[in-house]
Write a structure and sequence with these properties.
Blueprint (H helix, E strand, L loop, with lengths): L3 E9 L5 H9 L17 E7 L2 E7 L9 H14 L4 E7 L6 H10 L6 E6 L6 H12 L7 E3 L8 H10 L18 H17 L7 E10 L5 E9 L2 H8 L4 H18 L3 E9 L7 H6 L7
Parallel strand pairs: 1-3, 1-4, 4-5, 5-6, 8-9
Antiparallel strand pairs: 2-3, 7-8
Helix pairs in contact: 6-8
Length: 297
């Protein structure tokens, strides 16, 4: 059988469900998921197999109007991920509808030459008449070859979407081994898992002024993994939030991150977390490399 392989760029406004969709297409977790918008910071490649096709899924940061340097780096990463893709899939939150953030992405897609499809996500919680209205309005742009109605959360419509994506991939040898599901390094995955727990446990208490850096990653003689990470925040008040009373919040973040990493890696994980106040971490070039972003002036 002839092999097929190609790149699908998953783009959209923040919180459209892009990471949840990538995880659903891959069949296991490769991207962090949080109810908080803008949690995907760097381009992440998820690798899915469908028949003879290997899908290289670029889960991009949500596209929005950037204000800070970190924002500009995230938006640049999103469009870089879409550059030259065999297919661009615009994911729209069907419940949230077409607001200014979605319109920003539509306007940016208008001049792009790549083939595009429209995915209306979260149909399980969307109002059906409004859903159809959104689809009609978005298709009036003439940008999209096909429209799909799915719920990445429940899996509804995902198998059909995956089959269509596979059918659109060009003839090519597979780029990765069959059992590989992501191009992220284990250091990056470890940092992402801890960052996910920060978002899930702190919700609105901690703004985006935080980052996780994996300082040390090593294997012990017994096969277990030792990981030391630094959680960076901008102000002492944020450090107190992360630590919690008597260090209880940090302990819970570490406990859940450790369990998730052990599950993903299939070995025992020893995780050591430290919280450091670094007011200017968003101006640290080396940290951008660590979290997989390019420095943007």
């Amino acid at each position: 059988m002839t092999q097929h392989c190609g790149v699908v760029a998953i783009v959209g406004a923040p919180n459209a469900g892009k990471s949840t969709l990538v995880n659903a297409l891959v069949g296991q977790k490769v991207a962090i998921v949080s109810p908080k918008a803008q949690t995907t910071r760097a381009k992440l490649l998820g690798i899915a197999i469908e028949g003879e096709a290997q899908l290289l899924l670029v889960d991009t940061p949500g596209i929005f109007t950037p204000e800070r340097r970190l924002d500009r780096a995230m938006v640049a990463a999103a469009w870089e991920g879409a550059e030259g893709a065999d297919l661009i899939a615009l994911v729209v939150d069907a419940k949230g509808g077409i607001g200014p953030k979605v319109q920003t992405v539509i306007d940016s897609l208008a001049g792009r030459r790549e083939r595009k499809i429209l995915i209306l996500n979260k149909v399980d919680v969307a109002d059906k008449p409004r859903l159809l209205g959104h689809a009609a309005k978005l298709n009036e742009t003439g940008l999209f070859d096909e429209t799909f109605f799915i719920s990445a959360q429940t899996g509804d419509g995902v198998a059909e979407l995956k089959a269509v994506l596979a059918g659109a991939m060009p003839e090519s040898d597979w780029h990765f081994p069959e059992d590989q599901v992501s191009d992220a390094t284990e250091r990056m995955i470890a940092a992402e898992v801890t960052r996910e727990q920060l978002y899930l446990q702190l919700h609105a208490e901690l703004p985006y002024a935080s980052a996780v850096e994996t300082e040390k990653y090593s294997e012990r003689a017994d096969g277990s993994v030792e990981i030391h990470q630094q959680i960076m925040v901008e102000r002492p008040t944020q450090r107190a939030i992360v630590l919690g009373k008597g260090g209880s919040r940090l302990k819970e973040i570490g406990s859940r991150a450790r369990a998730e990493l052990s599950r993903i890696m299939g070995v025992q994980v020893h995780l050591y977390l430290h919280v450091k106040v670094r007011p200017e971490w968003q101006e640290d070039r080396s940290l951008y490399r660590e979290i997989g972003l390019d420095w943007v002036e």
